[in-house]
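Dear colleague,

Thank you for sharing your sequence with our group. We've completed the structure prediction you requested, and as agreed, I am returning the results in plain text so they can be pasted directly into your records. Please verify that the sequence below matches your submission; if there's any discrepancy, let me know and we will rerun it promptly.
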Amino acid sequence: QVQLVESGGGSVQAGGSLRLSCAASGGTFSGYAMGWFRQAPGQEREFVARISWIGGTTYYADSVKGRFTISRDNAKTSVYLQMNGLKPEDTAVYYCAAGPRWSRNKYDYWGQGTQVTVSS
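Please find the predicted structure tokens below.
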């Protein structure tokens, strides 16, 4: 029933920007938080950013702090990731996920991912 669909990925040069979107449907998310994760080739999946549906409290990985901004639209049940100052090391498949607000590490639902490629 619950579905998360990412979009907005693409290929950009270092220093460029991309805006990722994640449309959530099929559930009530008021008690949840949304997170963005990424996985580079040969690497483990890593946390990028998180935002709560109510209050909009955010949390970022140190590697993206100051460059990435997560936001949400409660009416559309969508979450966004504005990525500025992109670096080649940001290249990865980016996933959105939804999890309960009480846990910063638990995510119950995942999207299919969208590719982000940053060239030097």
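Summary note from our side: The chain has a mean pLDDT of 95.

Kind regards,
the structure core
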